[in-house]
Fold this protein.
Amino acid sequence: MPPCRENHFYQEHARLIRRSFEKLLNKPLLAEISDKSGIGEALYFAPFAVVSHDTKADPVFNYANAKALELFEMSWEEFISTPSRLSAEPVNQDERNRLLALVSTQGYINDYQGVRISKHGRRFMIKNAVVWNLLDEDGIYRGQAAFFDEWLML
């Protein structure tokens, strides 16, 4: 089921995304939200794209907000069953793999740009993306996430 009121817009995962971002980058992901329970909804309807994937050897997406779903032209169910490597064209796989390895060792990068592809084959360039490790409160690695608010349809 996609993020909605009934599942609190995946509030716990949204908190993980936000907490990891803010701890690593020392800046807010979202404007201050007075109602902590509103983080899930605020992230889902944010004007920027946020996605995350799990910790499998071939990571699979496990979150996308509404803007990301729109850009990738996928439903929630389609997106969360997609290996994250499929978000880049095959010719861009080496660069994507290099990026993810760098994030794994550094914790984050904040200047990534690359071409992504939607379900319908539409290509778009993301610019100045932030990609970071998701770490829970105990410091356990839970995957990686990406934020971008600059893109250009190609």
User: Anything to note?
Assistant: The first strand starts at residue 49 and ends at 53. The helical segments are 11-25, 39-44, 66-72, 76-79, 93-106. The two ends are 31 Å apart (CA to CA).
